[in-house]
From TrEMBL:
<dbReference type="Pfam" id="PF01408">
    <property type="entry name" value="GFO_IDH_MocA"/>
</dbReference>
<dbReference type="InterPro" id="IPR000683">
    <property type="entry name" value="Gfo/Idh/MocA-like_OxRdtase_N"/>
</dbReference>
<dbReference type="InterPro" id="IPR050984">
    <property type="entry name" value="Gfo/Idh/MocA_domain"/>
</dbReference>
<feature type="domain" description="GFO/IDH/MocA-like oxidoreductase">
    <location>
        <begin position="133"/>
        <end position="247"/>
    </location>
</feature>
<protein>
    <submittedName>
        <fullName>Gfo/Idh/MocA family protein</fullName>
    </submittedName>
</protein>
<dbReference type="Pfam" id="PF22725">
    <property type="entry name" value="GFO_IDH_MocA_C3"/>
</dbReference>
<comment type="similarity">
    <text>Belongs to the Gfo/Idh/MocA family.</text>
</comment>
<keyword id="KW-0560">Oxidoreductase</keyword>
<feature type="domain" description="Gfo/Idh/MocA-like oxidoreductase N-terminal">
    <location>
        <begin position="5"/>
        <end position="122"/>
    </location>
</feature>
<dbReference type="InterPro" id="IPR036291">
    <property type="entry name" value="NAD(P)-bd_dom_sf"/>
</dbReference>
<dbReference type="InterPro" id="IPR055170">
    <property type="entry name" value="GFO_IDH_MocA-like_dom"/>
</dbReference>
Length: 333
């Protein structure tokens, strides 16, 4: 139950660089290897973070018998092929959000993981932030009554650059997969899978979405109004409305420290819960604990939730005329 879990990193980019420091806050987790399609990048990453082994191909780390779980931080369209190969190799997975580039790709990965009994979880760090854990506990305890609506926004002002990954369709660019996944996952966490998805927005000349406003609807009248953008900045705030009050999640809501509870007829209550490290430590701890306990899914970030979120993203992209694709050659050197 307490055995050390040995981690490998696939894709030594910016997000992986940020995550590495938080391993120091996770008992029982040890990063040992990294893989890139560039041997030089892998070597530099390993040297910077004190890893034992560096590989110049993804296939090599899949064959490493001393790696228990892979953190996949490649561009979105590469997640699908890497995840399938890792599952076939018996490697547990923590896959960066968005889980895949397409709904069909996500379903295939989840089906394979369940078929093989291999642990897989989407790296949605928001669900594990202490402030969000407190929010979920309040909602479960009925602090604001029945949740009827969610609002959330997450937007940044990025200068359009066709050469940048964020604006490249073949690399899974666009607001939806990079930022929209946060607002959709937050709403799904509280309301479940919606019955309807209505989307308005715009696209860049490269074919990726620049901005999107989503109205999610449920047959019983519940709603979520969500905004994401690469074209303009937003506060990054969320608000959860219930029949007995509401909860504000202060910016940036996807990794907050403070929430404010507003009960009908009562003074606001401010609750602050700071994360350990930068905040990635909590999802790393969840995966480590699940593997030590022999579980194949997380109860906090189950695969069914990932599929529901990916379905909303796919429907929104389709309505905007954005056609994401998985990269079948992700394992090629």
């Amino acid at each position: 139950m307490s055995r050390e879990i040995r981690w490998g990193v696939v894709g030594p980019g910016r997000i992986a660089q940020n995550v590495m420091g938080d391993f120091a806050h996770v008992e029982g987790a040890k990063p040992v290897a990294v893989a890139s399609r560039s041997a030089d990048r892998a070597e530099a990453f390993a040297e910077r973070h004190g890893l034992e082994r560096a590989y110049g191909s993804y296939a090599e780390i899949l064959a490493d018998p001393d790696v228990d779980v892979l953190y996949v931080a490649t561009p979105h369209p590469q997640h699908h092929a890497v995840a399938l190969a890792a599952i076939d190799a018996g490697k547990a997975l923590l896959v960066e959000k968005a889980f895949t580039a397409t709904t069909a790709g996500a379903a295939e990965v989840v089906d394979r993981a369940r078929e093989r009994g291999v642990f897989v979880m989407e790296a949605m760090w928001t669900r594990f932030q202490p402030a969000v854990v407190a929010l979920r506990e309040m909602v479960a305890d009925g602090a604001i009554g029945e949740v009827r609506s969610v609002q959330a926004d997450l937007g940044v002002d990025r200068a359009y650059d066709p050469a940048d990954r964020l604006f490249a369709l073949e690399l899974g660019g666009g607001a939806l997969l990079d930022l929209g996944v946060y607002v959709v996952s937050f709403a799904q966490m509280l309301l479940g899978a919606p019955d309807t998805v209505t989307t308005a927005g715009s696209a860049y000349p490269t074919g990726v979405d620049a901005e999107a406003a989503l109205l999610l609807g449920w047959d019983d009248g519940r709603t979520a109004t969500l905004t994401t953008s690469l074209r303009y900045p937003t506060p990054g705030q969320a608000r959860v409305f219930g029949t007995g009050g509401w909860i504000d999640v202060l910016p940036r809501f996807h990794h907050p420290e403070t929430i404010v509870l507003h009960r009908t007829g009562a003074e606001p209550e401010t609750i602050t819960r700071r994360p350990d490290g930068v905040g990635y430590s909590h999802e790393l701890a969840e995966v480590t604990a699940c593997l030590q306990a022999g579980r194949t899914e997380s109860a906090v970030m189950p695969l069914a939730d990932t599929l529901a979120v990916q379905d909303v993203l796919g429907r929104a992209a389709e309505q905007l005329g954005v056609a994401h694709r998985e990269d079948p050659d992700a394992l090629a050197v």
